[in-house]
Amino acid sequence: MQARVTSVGLLIKPNPADTFEYPHHIDRASLDALPSKPGIYIFRDTQNRPLYIGKSVNIRARVLSHLRTPEEARMLQQSSHVEFRRTAGDIGALLLESRLIKELQPLHNKKLRRTREMCTLRLGPGVKSAPEIVYARDHDFARTAGLYGLFATRKAAQEKLREIVEMQMLCPALTGLESTIRGRACFARQISRCLGACIGAEPMQEHYRRLKAALNDMRIMVWPYEGAMGIVEECDGWKQTHVIDHWFYLGSIDHVAGSPPIKRAARKDFDVDTYKILVKPILRGELRIEAVEI
């Protein structure tokens, strides 16, 4: 379809979706089997290799939307069939999607498939403490208090700290962003962008209070339970319990007669994706949480 000009002089460009056809090479039976229920789906190629993993509260509708998207033609051309796995709700789908992307490393999930080495800002309890950048390999983020923000790189953590310092008129020298001689005003103070804690114009206690308050929105929540807990979801009479221990997803229990026991993950460390999926719903009290024995 070519672009055309209307009678009033408007240029109408062709819509790629108007000429897009469903990829007939994708196994039709695998598409017909897709349920309109929560879970994850996997596009696979002719050698059964995973190409893309996604999740939805309506698997069928989401997969069909992929088939109608011309921008995803490259992934669709490689696809042979679509596999799905049901979950009892959206939380279970999010957790399973995150785990499978890390385990299976699908070609087209580039952003999520990396197992990231995260860093954070740690602030000690003393009023003279400056934020320091620490890494997950050295500190258990699930058990350590006084951690703020999750960053993929040291540079990103430094840039965020600098942004906070500038916005709150904090002292770059006292926050570790600038070196200066003790008792001498930092550069920000010289241009009236620091309240002067570096030279005693602002009490150290007040500077520390303001710094901590500014960081508080990024505070990493310490795991609030002694051990593993279960997040319960139900759908059409089917109950699942997703087992989480210190912000790590261990697996899900299906409460159906004859179901296999939970397949536990090998690791049990802080997982940034699980944390991001769960922390806000837990704080808002939106989840049904029960004790579990594993």
UniProtKB/TrEMBL annotation:
Superkingdom classification of source: Bacteria
SMART domains xrefs: GIYc
MF GO annotations: endonuclease activity; hydrolase activity
Keywords annotated in UniProt: DNA damage, DNA excision, DNA repair, Endonuclease, Excision nuclease, Hydrolase, Nuclease, SOS response
Record-linked CDD domains: GIY-YIG_UvrC_Cho
UniProt GO cellular component terms: excinuclease repair complex
GO terms of biological process kind: nucleotide-excision repair; SOS response
GIY-YIG domain boundaries: 36-110
InterPro entries given in the database record: GIY-YIG_endonuc, GIY-YIG_endonuc_sf, GIY-YIG_UvrC_Cho, UvrABC_protein_C
Protein name, per record: Excinuclease cho
